[in-house]
Structures are given as C-alpha cells and as structure tokens.
C-alpha cells in the first residue's frame, strides 16, 4: 500500500512541482501560447479542436505515450533511475583530487549572488551538453538506437510524448549527466563558489523554469512555433524539435539539442527551417519511407528494443518479420 501511495503522490507532484514540465503553471502558459498562435493564424478552426485535435489525442500512439509515462513514473518511484544518478559522488571525487593537487589548504570562496548566477548557468550549459551527446550517441550507435527508436516511433505528438522513453535510455542519460554535472560542480566549488547554490524559482532551476514556461510543452505537439533563424542558432525552438521527429530524409539526425542550438551549430547537426513545414512523424527507412510501427503496444515498446539491439550485436534474426535496422532513421 505504501508503494501505491508513493506512486499516487508522485503523479500528483508531477502536476504541481515546478521541476516537472507537466506542472499546472507550465500547462496553463502553453494553452495561452497556443491561443496566441491560433489568433495569429486567423482562428483557423474552433479553438478547442485546434488545441486538442481528436485525431492526435485519440491516436493509438498516444496511448503508448501515456503507458510509458506511467511505467517510467513507477520506475522512478522505486528508485531504478535514481541508482544511475551519482552526481555527488563524482563531484566529491573530482573535488578531492583537485584539492590534493594544490599546496595550500582549500579555501572555498564566499557565495554571492553573482557567483550563484554563474553556477546556475554552468549547470544549464553542462546538463544540455550532456543531453546533446546522449541524444547523439543513441542516434549514431546501432546498439543504442533501438532504445531511442521508441521515442521516434511516436506517430503523433502531445506534451506527454516527452515521456515516451525506454528505461534503458533514461538510465544511460542519467549516468552521462552524473559524470558531466559532477565534474562541473566540482570545478565550480573549487574555482568559483563555496557551495552549489543555484538560482531557483519555486525550487526549479531558473533557466529550466523559463525553458518550461516559454514553450517546452510545444516541442512534442502538433503546434508549430518557430523562434526565427537568428534565435534558432542559439536556442532550439519547438518547431526545430518537431523537425527532429520528422520522417523526411532531409531532417534525419538534426537538432539533437534540448535548450541550446549552439551544440548542433558547432557539430554540424543544426537544421533551421525557412518557414513552417508539413511534417510526418514516426520511423522511416534510409530513403524516408515510413516503416511499420514496431511499438504498437506496451509490451513491444519495452521488449522490442532489447531484441533489436541484440540482433544488431549478434547478427542473429529473432523477429518473424525481419526489419532492416540499418536503414532506420538515425
């Protein structure tokens, strides 16, 4: 019974705490933003239908999104994902060795507002850099791609599609984040600030608070929101992430960033749309042709990536309907 209570509590918290993208405040701002877009486009339909198109929210793909959200919620509550978060351990290890390298005793600097602001920016930048490379590796590595392909097999997108992630993907992301953030925190403590004291709003990192407030929930949606070519070289817009999910060959392996577009710009994976594009979501082969949905239900969503990855590693075909995995979207 305690586990059930914890799960219900976590579900309720996801709509309250500002660390969650699904917090009511962010969802309300999303509705307001969509209303502004609806007005700008000349009220193309009834607003409720524009906001909640039946063909999107009642699509079978969205049901799998909801199921994966609940599965990952439960795994988070029982501590599976927390086991891969060891940021303090990394920070302590790196800091201890940095202190050992200096001749004098460690004298931490005083915490000031300015240093806290810099530490906050460091956390955002390093976290986003880690997410970029996690994303990149899952697209480019044949053994990892099957676990991320679950996310890309979404044929429609709603805000909850952000949770359509295989647990293996989340575990790997958490490990990479722990290594990156732990090292960054140690350097910040050693060079900049006496304690990790980031600027927050309602307990949420102020940078991610703004990110969630200003359109993060539209990244996985049917609503196109572009920031324009200048800003889209710095920040990833909802439109750019929708392009990332596109089946079109020209969009493959583009826009891996979450907050910042600078990583994509630096490493040659940036795609800036000239204007609104008509997109189809889901998996495709190397020529951009749609492939059959491999994750049509919860069982397939959880098990098929293991089979697919094993086949890639061994060359042994287990599935009755062979899939040309090498031709799938990366």
Describe the structure.
With 330 residues, this protein is an all-alpha fold. It has one domain (2-311). The protein is built from 13 helices and two strands. The longest helix is centred in the middle third of the chain and has 28 residues, at 113-140. The protein is globular and about 65 Å long.
Instruction: Please mark out the parts with pLDDT under 50 across 5 or more consecutive residues, or reply none.
Output: 321-327
The biggest beta sheet, please? 2 strands, antiparallel
Main-sheet strand order equals 1-2
Rg (C-alpha, Å):
21 Å
Number of domains: 1
Structural class: mainly alpha
Oligomeric state = single chain
The mean pLDDT is 90
| DSSP helical segment count | 13
Q: SSE order, as H and E?
A: HHHHHHHHHEEHHHH
Q: Which bin fits the share of residues in helices? A: 40-55%
State the end-to-end distance. Answer: 42 Å
Protein name: Fatty acid hydroxylase superfamily protein
Organism: Ruegeria atlantica
Pfam families: FA_hydroxylase
Keywords: Membrane, Transmembrane, Transmembrane helix
State the gist of this model:
The chain is 52% helix and 1% strand. The longest helix has 28 residues, at 113-140.
Write the layout of secondary structure elements.
Blueprint: H1 2-13, H2 24-40, H3 47-51, H4 54-57, H5 60-77, H6 87-101, H7 113-140, H8 145-152, H9 167-191, E1 200-201, E2 204-205, H10 206-213, H11 238-244, H12 262-267, H13 298-314
Antiparallel strand pairs: 1-2
Protein name: Fatty acid hydroxylase superfamily protein
Organism: Ruegeria atlantica
GO molecular function: iron ion binding; oxidoreductase activity
């Amino acid at each position: 019974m305690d586990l059930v209570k914890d799960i219900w509590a976590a579900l309720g918290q996801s709509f309250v705490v500002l660390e969650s993208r699904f917090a009511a405040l962010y969802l309300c701002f999303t509705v307001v933003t969509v209303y502004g877009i609806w007005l700008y486009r000349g009220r193309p339909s009834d607003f409720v239908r524009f906001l909640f198109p039946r063909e999107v929210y009642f699509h079978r793909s969205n049901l799998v999104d909801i199921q994966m959200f609940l599965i990952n919620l439960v795994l988070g509550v029982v501590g599976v994902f927390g086991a891969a978060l060891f940021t303090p351990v990394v920070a302590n290890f790196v800091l201890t060795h940095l202190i050992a390298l200096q001749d004098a005793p460690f004298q931490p600097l005083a915490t000031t507002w300015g240093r806290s602001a810099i530490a906050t920016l460091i956390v955002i930048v390093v976290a986003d850099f880690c997410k970029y490379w996690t994303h990149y590796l899952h697209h480019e590595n044949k053994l990892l791609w099957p676990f991320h392909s679950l996310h890309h097999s979404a044929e429609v997108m709603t805000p909850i599609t952000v949770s359509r992630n295989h647990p293996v993907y989340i575990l790997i992301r958490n490990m990479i984040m722990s290594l990156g953030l732990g090292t960054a925190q140690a350097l910040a403590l050693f060079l900049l600030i006496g304690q990790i004291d980031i600027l927050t709003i309602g307990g949420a990192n102020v940078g991610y608070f703004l990110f969630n407030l200003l359109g993060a929930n539209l990244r996985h949606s049917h609503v196109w929101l572009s920031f324009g070519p200048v800003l889209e070289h710095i920040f990833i817009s909802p439109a750019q992430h929708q392009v990332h999910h596109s089946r079109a060959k020209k969009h493959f392996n583009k826009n891996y960033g979450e907050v910042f577009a600078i990583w994509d710009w630096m490493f040659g994976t940036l795609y800036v749309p000239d204007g609104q594009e008509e997109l189809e979501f889901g998996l495709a082969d190397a020529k951009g042709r749609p492939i059959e949905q491999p994750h049509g239900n919860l069982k397939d969503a959880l098990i098929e990536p293991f089979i697919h990855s094993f086949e890639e590693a061994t060359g042994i075909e287990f599935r009755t309907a062979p899939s040309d995995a090498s031709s799938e979207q990366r």
